[in-house]
């Protein structure tokens, strides 16, 4: 979009819109989240958003009944005027103490809102840990998906999976499935209840061949380059910031390592958000390939497995030997 100086300056001539732009410099946000952080009604915030979007400073993205907003002046995407505005706002926060304090308070408020949502999701996992496999099967048949996942990985890694990290391992089903093809399996999950079930499920494996670790998929507790393969099976749709999760996966992969993401194609089943704690209503191929590229992956052609209600996709990619850090740069 071609930016013009007059609407750009008019859009910036309001403290609420300046606060919105500084929040968007750090992450994509739902309009409802912005309204909560700013302490304003959603219609009022929507009017501010329209002004920012009309000026080319922000972009909307609809997902089911939710509307997300992201900055249109990130370092990799902005026209020269937009890049100059991004630098100006960053300098303003660094040099204007009053503005900096307001921005810091906005980010603290946002963190509290998201922490509450994550706590609700954790409570959901704790309550449903024992029935997780059966809940998942309501959405799509596991057998064909698992067979396709094994096939997709075997096609690319004929010598085996090497050191495997299963992110969001849940009940340990995917770790169990892929263990015979790996030299070592590490399963990571945030839920202690899930990990207890996974331990019971994997107890037949040699003790030195599997580790189960409690941790956050957005801040993996592992050193750089420690794994050859990473899998995320029906996990990424729980991420508020899927780009950060994939950036972390790239960090812990060795150069040339492989990633497989199994998740839903983009859909409009809003009940999965309200009833099952999904943060994202699936992903389009375009969105997933863009997320891969930003994290330093070269994506392959996806595999689609249509179901009765939802289509499951398997996206695979290879970590580049010279990984970029676009995600971290955009958050700086």
Instruction: Specify the CATH architecture of the largest domain.
Output: 3-Layer(aba) Sandwich
Globular, elongated, flat, extended or rod-shaped: what is the shape? Answer: elongated
Beta-strand segment tally:
11
Instruction: Characterize the largest beta sheet: strand count, sense, and whether it forms a barrel.
Output: 8 strands, mixed
Describe this entry's structure for a reader:
This protein is α/β, with parallel strands linked by helices and 332 residues long. It folds into two domains: 116 residues, Orthogonal Bundle (Arc Repressor Mutant, subunit A), CATH 1.10.10.10; 193 residues, Rossmann fold (3-Layer(aba) Sandwich), CATH 3.40.50.150. It has 14 helices and eleven strands. The strands form two sheets. Strands 4, 5, 6, 7, 8, 9, 10 and 11 form an eight-stranded mixed beta sheet that branches. The relative contact order is 0.10.
Summary, kept brief:
The chain is an alpha/beta fold and 332 residues long. It has helices spanning 5-12, 15-24, 31-38, 42-54, 80-95, 97-128, 132-137, 142-156, 173-178, 192-201, 242-252, 271-276, 285-295, 326-331, and strands spanning 29-30, 58-63, 66-71, 162-167, 182-189, 210-214, 227-233, 253-264, 297-299, 303-306, 311-319.
């Amino acid at each position: 979009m071609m930016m013009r100086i007059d609407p750009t300056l008019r859009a910036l001539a309001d403290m609420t819109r300046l606060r919105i732009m500084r929040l968007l410099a750090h992450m994509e946000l739902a309009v409802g989240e912005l309204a909560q952080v700013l302490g304003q009604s959603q219609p009022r915030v929507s009017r501010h958003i329209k002004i920012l979007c009309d000026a080319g400073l922000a972009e909307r993205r609809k997902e089911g009944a939710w509307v997300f907003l992201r900055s249109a002046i990130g370092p990799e995407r902005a026209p020269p005027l937009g890049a100059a505005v991004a630098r100006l706002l960053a300098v303003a926060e660094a040099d204007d103490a009053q503005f900096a304090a307001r921005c810091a308070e906005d980010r603290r408020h946002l963190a509290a809102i998201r922490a509450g949502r994550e706590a609700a999701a954790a409570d959901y996992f704790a309550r449903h840990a024992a029935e997780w496999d059966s809940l998942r099967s309501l959405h799509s048949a596991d057998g064909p998906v698992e067979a396709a996942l094994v096939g997709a990985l075997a096609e690319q890694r004929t010598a085996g999976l090497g050191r495997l990290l299963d992110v969001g391992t849940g009940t340990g089903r995917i770790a169990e499935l892929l263990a015979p093809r790996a030299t070592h399996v590490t399963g990571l999950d945030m839920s202690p209840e899930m990990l207890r079930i996974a331990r019971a499920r994997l107890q037949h494996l040699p003790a030195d061949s599997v580790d189960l670790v409690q941790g956050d998929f957005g801040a993996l507790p592992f050193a750089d380059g420690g794994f050859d393969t990473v899998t995320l099976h029906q996990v990424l749709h729980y991420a508020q910031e899927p780009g950060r999760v994939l950036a972390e996966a790239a960090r812990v992969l060795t150069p040339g390592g492989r990633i497989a993401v199994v998740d839903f194609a983009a859909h409009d089943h809003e009940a999965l958000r309200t009833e099952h704690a999904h943060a994202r209503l699936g992903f389009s191929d375009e969105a997933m390939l863009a997320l891969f590229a930003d994290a330093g992956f070269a994506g392959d052609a996806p595999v689609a497995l249509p179901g009765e209600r939802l289509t499951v996709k398997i996206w695979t990619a290879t970590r580049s030997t010279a990984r970029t850090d676009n995600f971290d740069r955009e958050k700086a």
